[in-house]
Amino acid sequence: xxxxxxxxxxxxxxxxxxxxxxxxxxxxxxxxxxxxxxxxxxxxxxxxxxxxxxxxxxxxxxxxxxxxxxxxxxxxxxxxxxxxxxxxxxxxxxxxxxxxxxxxxxxxxxxxxxxxxxxxxxxxxxxxxxxxxxxxxxxxxxxxxxxxxxxxxxxxxxxxxxxxxxxxxxxxxxxxxxxxxxxxxxxxxxxxxxxxxxxxxxxxxxxxxxxxxxxxxxxxxxxxxxxxxxxxxxxxxxxxxxxxxxxxxxxxxxxxxxxxxxxxxxxxxxxxxxxxxxxxxxxxxxxxxxxxxxxxxxxxxxxxxxxxxxxxxxxxxxxxxx
Length: 322
Description:
Layout: H1 3-20, E1 27-33, H2 36-40, H3 42-46, E2 50-51, E3 54-61, H4 64-72, E4 78-82, H5 83-91, E5 96-103, E6 107-111, E7 126-128, H6 135-146, E8 153-155, H7 161-169, E9 175-179, H8 182-189, E10 194-198, E11 216-221, H9 222-227, H10 229-248, H11 250-259, H12 266-272, E12 278-282, H13 287-300
Parallel strand pairs: 1-3, 1-4, 7-8
Antiparallel strand pairs: 2-3, 4-11, 5-11, 5-12, 6-9, 6-10
Helix pairs in contact: 7-8, 8-12, 10-11, 11-12
């Protein structure tokens, strides 16, 4: 073997060794969404922790598809996505696992018509929804079926939630399904806008009083689960603490949300926080609720969650409970 061949062989061995090791850097990247997710993280955003010598950094995006793209590119250590989208990615081989459910539904049926203030009055009405086959649409159809409400026409003619909100303000439409924080913003701008129902309150599982609308998921890159379990534990503890801070101290959280540009006023932020339904729950403790939630979408269209219910490995189970 000549000198150059030996050098190339040595370089190949070194590169192979380092490529098999987890990426070494001094940051922990968490991809989050503007809206209720940012609300839940506000304490950590104000004081990003240093965990195991690594600085937590947030990547904040407006749309779930932006977070999804970063996950597919393997650029995030942790991420928050709608649970349906998380299950879909998992079934397609994107290697992230479910750690916790932090947001338990933020979709509301609202109206600007004072004569429509009770659920039974929506029968025979037109309800506007953004995104046919999307989360809001599936949950609305499930809601109507559960409550035995007939004669409702669902209209998908608007191209975004913001368009729906503006149409409500201008009284071009009377009833719509809107997500928080737009609900609080609408109520703040126009006093005749009211909530008819929260699409996410259903407590029928096992005849116990448990929510099943596990709408938002906190996920971990599988490369972290293999090498950095202590980091996962500490990140989860910090996030659980931030969630508790937000709903236990809404005034303080509201000030931080204004400081970081998520809300225009602390009054609006304080009004919004309860509607975000923030409650950190480890996924391993609520498997049945998660399965029940995903089954709604699987029944509607199996393709929405990747063609099948996720297997047991979807949920990361070796978290030590705090």
